[in-house]
Amino acid sequence: MVSSHASKLEELARAGSLLTRELDFKSLLSVLVEQTLDITASDLAVLYLYLDPEKRESDALLSYRRGRWAAAERISKTSELITFIRESSEAVVLTERKQSPFADLFLDPEMQSGIALPLYTPKAAIGVLILNSHEPFFYNRERFNFLNSFTKLAGGMLHSSRLFQELKDYLKKIEELERYQENIFSSMTNLLVTTDGDGRIHYFNSAAGERLGLNSELIGAKLGEVFKDSLDRKILKAFDTSKDKDKEILGVEGIYKTAEKEMDFSLNVSPLKGKRGQYQGLTILITDQTRERKLQAGMEKVVEERRVIKDMFSSYLSRDIVQTLMDSP
To answer: Which value, in Å, is the radius of gyration of the alpha carbons in the chain?
Structure first.
């Protein structure tokens, strides 16, 4: 490592620029370990991350290693080294191998000097970076200053990367829930229409679109204007009453009429509230009674036909065989 002040700044700037190119957490770990090992000419560099950053006491697990020597996979939370760094957020330097409460700093019996630096932000403890060298008195002020500055920069980047990934995961969950909700609404046989706080159509499911003649161009249109010719005043008044009196209105029956079709229905209207109880619109759930009656009539016809068939076969087949045929035609 060149000793001039200008060279130190250049090395820090170059290594820092490599960090800032990355957003992926694992890529940042790689850059951190690779650069600190190469620039300081250490023999071994290992990054340990806390298993539970939220707790003051947590084991540290090996996450990235560079060098020809093995290192412990885990450093216990009872380690003096981990405890001191976690509590003080200060680096530990051992210039030579001698008896010390921080003996965990030497990752291999051949190593003669080492340094451990905390990775943290004011809001989060992330882990510990440990570097070792075969040479005693290897980690001088110059190397310490570089490592101290670089790990502070890396700590902020790693924390930001974690937050970014958590945000991505959270958004992914929201999108999955939205798709799940959309699938449920789309598969409903009942007709669902919602409005915003201004009484404009905000959403409708596919059943409502098909049977009420709604399309994407009507999103944002006033509910009353869209249905003024197809619903009677009693129904339109129910929408206003639910909003003005802030109450559910259940089981209102009416007829949806257009030039092409008529549909008997019953509907439930409910105010939609935000977290603080603020009015955000209406939820309108409509049951197509005309369709239900047709389905019921069809079901009754099928049941009657099965009964007739059963009577026909009962005259010359046993009751058990006939029942089996009815259950598994």
So the answer is: 36
Whether 239 has a pLDDT exceeding 90, the answer reads yes
Q: Is 59 helix (H, G, I), strand (E, B) or coil?
A: coil
Q: What is the mean pLDDT of the chain?
A: 82
What was the pLDDT predicted at 131? 96
Residue 123 CB: number of other CB atoms within 10 A? 8
What pTM was estimated for this model as a whole? Answer: 0.55
Residue 325 tokens, joined: 């045929």
List all residues 6 or more positions away from 261 whose beta carbon is below 8 Å from its beta carbon: none
**Which amino acid makes up residue 281?**
G
| Lowest mean pLDDT segment, chosen from 22-36, 158-172, 292-306 | 292-306
Q: 285 phi and psi, to 5 degrees?
A: -115, 120
For residues 234 and 255, what is the distance between their CA atoms, to the nearest angstrom? 11
221-to-183, 187, 240, 243, 293 alpha-carbon distances in Å: 24, 24, 16, 17, 31
pLDDT digits (tens, 9 = 90+) for 131-163: 999 999 999 998 998 898 888 888 888 888 888
Question: In the Cβ-directed half-sphere of 328, how many Cα atoms lie within 13 Å?
Answer: 3
Give me the DSSP letters along 265-281: EEEEEEEEE-TTS-EEE
For residue 250, what pLDDT is reported?
Answer: 92
Find out whether 49 and 131 touch, Cβ atoms under 8 Å.
no
The DSSP line for 238-256 is HHHHHHHTT--EEEEEEEE
Could you identify the residue written with the tokens 């101290």? Answer: 148
CA–centroid distance for 255 within its chain: 44
Question: To the nearest whole percent, how much of the chain has pLDDT over 70?
Answer: 78
Query: CA 255 to CA 265: how far, in whole Å?
Result: 6
Sheet of strand 279-288: strand arrangement: 201-204, 191-195, 279-288, 262-273, 249-257
* Lookup result for tokens 């405890």: 83
Query: Mean pLDDT throughout 42-60?
Result: 87
Contact 222, 239 (CB under 8 A): no
Cβ atoms of residues 304 and 293 within 8 Å:
no
